[in-house]
Amino acid sequence: MDTKKRILTGDRTTGKLHLGHYVGSLQSRVELQDEYDEFILLADVQALTTHFAEPSLINSSIYDVAMDNLSVGLDPEKVTIVQQSQVSSIAELTIFYSMLVTVNQLRHNPTIKTEAKNYGYADLTYGFLGYPVSQTADITFCNADLVPVGEDQVPHIELARKIVRKFNELYGTSIVEPQVKLSKVGRLSGLDGNAKMGKSMGNAIYLSDSPQAVWERVRNAVTDPARITVKIPGHPEICNVYKYHCVFNQGEVSNIGEMCKNAAIGCVACKKLLNGALNALLDPIREKRHYYEEHRNEVRDLIISGTAKANAVGNANLQDIKEKMHVII
Ligand code: ATP
Ligand code: MG
């Protein structure tokens, strides 16, 4: 019998994955794949909460997100890749959980507020406002113990824990209360200086970007605005590109910081060094991705078999939950 603890995490299928995903969650997924039984969710229902008018983007992103996860080194023999919309127990649990959450709890959720602002929503749909409830169902349909996510997800995991506690108390169920796992870089900023690199925000470097595309994006990244010429000493502590050096170029970062402060290196040269470090990270990822792009059917089969396994696990748990709720006659 499998006694490993379980991880559930995933990504919205709203486009390709980027460096923020890598440092915020993907790296942890790879590190923990031996120790934990991992479920990786292709969150297409959650994608609909904001991208309901773009079904073809969501469809192609199901493959993209699966391929990005595989490209960073997740082993298809070890992890289970799951398509959210095809797991009926998630939808059913969402309805049950929704009885235990108030509208104000959701309205005051800081991530909901930030995202609504970023999307420019004057009013919120029921689906968008309620996505943290659906996410609680994502995490708990398989009784996940641990959820490796970026900082923006912390309020959602806190809500999930509250819902689970209340549900267990009410119905005598033993749904696992999930724990959050934050990585060292809980939030990678965007190339435009925005607090978060986001795939719907046009400020990202994608894991599948070509070397040319990476350089274009790095070249255009926002730096210290006071540094109009190379002769003016820079302020690395407020420079976005320096932040990236801290994360992706640890070998050279202190030297680069000193040179910047002493006006011994210009922004273009500094960006070229970052570009080199990023491509060293991305080259092996690109190589793996190329394989999966050439073998789309293999990716499809992995998604279908992973989703079947998730349904078996979810249906068994849901049956038990329904019995405890006395909804079975
Ligand atoms: P969208 O803009 O469509 O919401 P996203 O870039 O926020 O896309 P998600 O699919 O919502 O991506 O997030 C997937 C996972 O990646 C979550 O755990 C999230 O916290 C993490 N993540 C996303 N962006 C970042 C970031 N910039 N820094 C750290 N973690 C991130
Ligand atoms: Mg997001």
TrEMBL record:
Key words, A-Z: Aminoacyl-tRNA synthetase, ATP-binding, Ligase, Nucleotide-binding, Protein biosynthesis
Single GO term (MF): tryptophan-tRNA ligase activity
Gene Ontology cellular component list: cytosol
Protein name: Tryptophan--tRNA ligase
Assigned protein family: Belongs to the class-I aminoacyl-tRNA synthetase family.
Reaction(s) catalysed (UniProt annotation): tRNA(Trp) + L-tryptophan + ATP = L-tryptophyl-tRNA(Trp) + AMP + diphosphate + H(+)
Matching CDD domains: TrpRS_core
InterPro entries with a match to the protein in the record: aa-tRNA-synth_Ic (IPR002305), Rossmann-like_a/b/a_fold (IPR014729), Trp-tRNA-ligase (IPR002306), Trp-tRNA_synthetase (IPR050203)
Organism: Sphaerochaeta pleomorpha (strain ATCC BAA-1885 / DSM 22778 / Grapes)
Listed GO biological process terms: tryptophanyl-tRNA aminoacylation
